[in-house]
Structure to design on (850 residues):
């Protein structure tokens, strides 16, 4: 029997922790930005030490620029003043603290309402930001992606800020249709995939902003690699999320696929990322064109989250937007 | 198709066949164009774009009432949209054209790749290249070892191995292409399963009042949508009776009135003659009778009325299902048509307020969806209801044009209240409240095959994106003074973007082949 009991104290604590998270993410963002801004500019030409590793991974853009450009800085790794590097390290620590606060906010919200804490748009967006930061922080342990820090935290801060300002609803029980274990399976997968897609989307946007040549922004090769890796992981998860959603729809709505607006847009998103993966293996489509496809797919994902919930409606009307 | 660099699809723009190639030439050109990766990308893009109107324009299959509204508000635009199939995007010929072309392109890609892959699986790893130093990964060290030992160590790491007099060639990661092919073939399977389900399955909707029953026959449905291959006799012959429906709501706090649980108590007879069983139907818990599923979709109120006409005879005594106007408070509206009333027919509009409260301005509203203080407001009309005119009418609406208003204002009625209609036209008694539920029954023989295809697709996808195809070659040469063997190792991954991750594995392999790790690294770099 579902319960309508809400622990108000825990709910308030969760709301406060989200604010703490925002502050810590802003601090991390500033730290990373300082590190990036005062580091030496990089060229898209890969430096000698890196080149051997990246030779196969780089798209044609990297190879082309390598031939045409000769730059003094490209031969040594980007040097930056000591304090800028320290700012980056502080940002890393603060980022992890923010991550912990974000995790606590999600868990405590769940405890306050005794259900999975992603049943409305506020909870969903908070969880996606958490997933994106998680993807970044864990990727950073194994791969050199620190250069993305400022941008991931910008995106997450905007997401959380938007959630707090426009989407916040008091903690409470859910409609009967959401009261099932399927929410743990379907929505969790969607959150995880969305977080990774967000990481890829941030990289893709930077890729397009950054022109070839000298820039303080990370190189196109690096950006492309992060995006590709994130999508490789996210795409099967997204596929699974759609299939789990179909299984749930089969339990709840009497059909596994019915072209409900949310279903249509998750399908469009899926097609978009599938097109990206195909483009990545097609000569003449790698690099910029593939990145544009990826950004379009990411836009479809965002529209599915924001547009469909707020403007279109349909059966997935759980957003509970105030 | 996905992600190996050895893509069979042609990357080059297919050139036109030029003059004089004839029909066969054109056909070959058409097929090459259709199966090229560029066309596949364009079709994927079109597929996505074509589904957008399906989410922005209301669809007949999803929200028929909104389509009707379109036709009413903007008839000309609606007629054009209808001509272009915009209200049935996913059944439209142009949408079908896109996905059929896409699947054709897919078949044209899968068949040759399957052939190639089957050959590759049977083929031995390729012979060693002349110069291992030119490969992206390379190392060499001195160690006492033999071809057999190297081959054994590589086999232990689940490489497929081929040996020569002084070399070993090894390859692994065939599962990548296997997964890739399985993924794409299972997409075809999914399409077939969906098609099969829509041909041999059916869907029906019915509204059921508390205390009434349903038997699964075509005639019992309010709306019945069979697939083209379904015969009316093939419906599973179950039946059930709705004993009681219960909705639970949040009583207090900010979320007052939010639904917590819906439960419909049914007595189900699986087939004629079998014993009854109790089933509680809930939102995520459908009734399953031999694969025919019945779902609880909606609910509402049905106040019961007893209506006496001008001659003093009971002309109506039944529950009236009301349409929910405001789902937050379950304020509902319904129409009662009494064609049997004499001397003139009677019609009523009623507004049902489950928890009625009086506002400051004297009007009434519902404050809560549960039936705490269920009152009805009644408007009465007399005259010809137009039921014999032939024009279709909604049971929920009363066409009041041409009717004579009898009673325009009344206090809301409580259960048991009666109002006399003016001029001795009769009376109406509000006798009680029942609840109705809407059910959907679905039989879809394609759902299990679709699930199997989807599961295979996901597994195939994980393999095709997660496994890397890689080759390792080892060449052994005697050291000049006869002390030990120079072992030269080269590695290559054929997977896009896989080099960085392969570097670590390559180091492991080199170490496993006998290089003392510290010494190797330096030597390895020296060679590069």
């Amino acid at each position: 029997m579902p319960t309508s009991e809400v622990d108000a104290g825990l709910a308030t604590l969760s709301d406060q922790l989200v604010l703490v998270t925002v502050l810590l993410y802003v601090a991390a963002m500033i730290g990373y930005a300082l590190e990036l801004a005062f580091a030496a500019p990089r060229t898209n030409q890969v430096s000698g030490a890196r080149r051997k590793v990246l030779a196969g991974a780089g798209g044609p853009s990297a190879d082309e620029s390598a031939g045409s450009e000769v730059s003094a800085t490209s031969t040594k790794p980007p040097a930056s003043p000591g304090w800028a590097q320290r700012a980056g390290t502080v940002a890393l620590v603060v980022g992890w603290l923010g991550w912990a606060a974000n995790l606590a906010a999600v868990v405590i919200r769940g405890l306050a309402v005794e259900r999975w804490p992603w049943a409305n748009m506020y909870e969903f967006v908070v969880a996606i930001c958490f997933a994106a930061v998680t993807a970044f922080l864990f990727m950073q342990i194994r791969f050199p992606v620190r250069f993305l820090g400022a941008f991931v935290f910008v995106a997450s801060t905007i997401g959380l800020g938007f959630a707090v300002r426009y989407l916040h609803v008091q903690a409470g029980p859910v409609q009967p249709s959401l009261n099932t274990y399927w929410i743990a399976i379907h929505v969790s997968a969607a959150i995880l995939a969305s977080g990774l897609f967000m990481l890829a989307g941030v990289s893709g946007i930077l890729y397009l902003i950054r022109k070839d040549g000298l820039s303080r922004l990370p190189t196109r090769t690096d950006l492309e690699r992060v995006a590709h890796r994130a999508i490789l992981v996210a795409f099967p998860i997204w596929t699974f999320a759609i299939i789990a959603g179909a299984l749930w729809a089969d339990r709840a709505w009497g059909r596994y696929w019915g072209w409900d607006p949310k279903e249509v847009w998750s399908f469009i998103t899926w097609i978009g990322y599938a097109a990206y993966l195909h483009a990545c293996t097609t000569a003449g489509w790698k690099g910029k064109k593939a990145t544009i496809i990826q950004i379009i797919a990411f836009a479809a994902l965002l529209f599915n989250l924001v547009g469909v919930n707020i403007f279109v409606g349909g059966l997935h009307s759980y957003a509970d937007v105030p | 198709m996905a992600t190996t660099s050895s893509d069979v699809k042609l990357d080059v723009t297919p050139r036109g066949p030029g003059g004089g190639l004839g029909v066969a030439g054109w056909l070959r050109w058409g097929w090459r164009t259709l199966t090229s990766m560029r066309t596949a990308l364009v079709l994927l893009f079109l597929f996505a774009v074509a589904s957008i109107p399906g989410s922005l324009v209301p669809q007949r299959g999803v929200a028929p009432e909104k389509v009707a509204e379109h036709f009413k508000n903007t008839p000309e635009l609606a007629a054009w949209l209808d001509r272009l199939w915009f209200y049935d995007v996913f059944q439209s010929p142009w949408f079908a054209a896109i996905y059929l072309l896409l699947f054709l392109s897919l078949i044209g890609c899968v068949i040759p790749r399957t052939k190639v892959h089957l050959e590759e699986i049977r083929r031995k790893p390729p012979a060693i290249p002349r110069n291992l130093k030119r490969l992206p990964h390379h190392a060499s060290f001195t160690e006492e070892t033999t071809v057999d030992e190297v081959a054994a160590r590589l086999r232990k790491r689940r490489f497929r191995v081929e040996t020569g007099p002084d070399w070993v060639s090894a390859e692994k990661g065939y599962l990548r292409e296997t997964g890739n092919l399985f993924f794409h073939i299972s997409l075809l399977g999914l399409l077939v399963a969906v098609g099969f389900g829509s041909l041999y399955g059916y869907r029906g909707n019915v509204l059921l009042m508390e205390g009434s029953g349903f038997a699964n026959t075509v005639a019992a449905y309010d709306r019945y949508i069979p697939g083209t291959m379904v015969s009316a006799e093939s419906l599973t012959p179950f039946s059930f009776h709705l004993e009681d429906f219960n909705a639970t709501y949040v009583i207090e706090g900010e979320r007052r009135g939010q639904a917590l649980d819906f439960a419909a108590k049914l007595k189900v007879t699986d087939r004629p003659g079998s014993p009854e069983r109790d089933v509680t139907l809930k939102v995520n818990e459908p009734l399953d009778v031999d694969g025919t599923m019945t779902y609880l979709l909606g609910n509402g109120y049905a106040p019961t009325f007893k209506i006496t006409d001008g001659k003093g005879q009971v002309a109506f005594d039944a529950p009236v299902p009301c349409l929910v106007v405001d789902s937050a408070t379950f304020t509902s509206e319904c129409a009662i048509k009494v064609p049997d009333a004499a001397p003139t027919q009677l019609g009523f509009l009623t507004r049902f307020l489950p928890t009625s409260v009086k506002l400051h301005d004297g009007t009434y509203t519902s404050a809560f969806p549960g039936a705490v203080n269920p009152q009805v407001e009644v408007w009465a009309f007399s005259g010809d209801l137009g039921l014999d005119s032939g024009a279709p009418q909604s049971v929920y609406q009363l066409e009041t044009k041409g009717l004579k208003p009898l009673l325009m204002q009344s206090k809301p009625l409580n259960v048991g209240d009666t109002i006399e209609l003016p001029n001795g036209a009769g009376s109406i008694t509000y006798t009680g409240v029942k609840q109705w539920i809407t059910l959907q029954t679905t039989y879809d023989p394609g759902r299990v095959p679709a699930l199997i295809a989807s599961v295979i697709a996901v597994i195939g996808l994980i393999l095709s994106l997660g496994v890397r195809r890689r080759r390792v070659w080892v060449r052994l040469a005697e050291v000049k003074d006869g002390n030990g063997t120079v072992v030269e190792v080269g590695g290559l991954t054929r997977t896009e973007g896989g080099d960085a991750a392969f570097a670590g594995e390559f180091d492991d392999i080199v170490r496993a082949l006998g290089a003392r790790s510290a010494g190797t690294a330096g030597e390895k770099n020296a060679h590069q």
Notes: The mean pLDDT of chain A is 81. Chain A has one domain: 8-70+83-311.
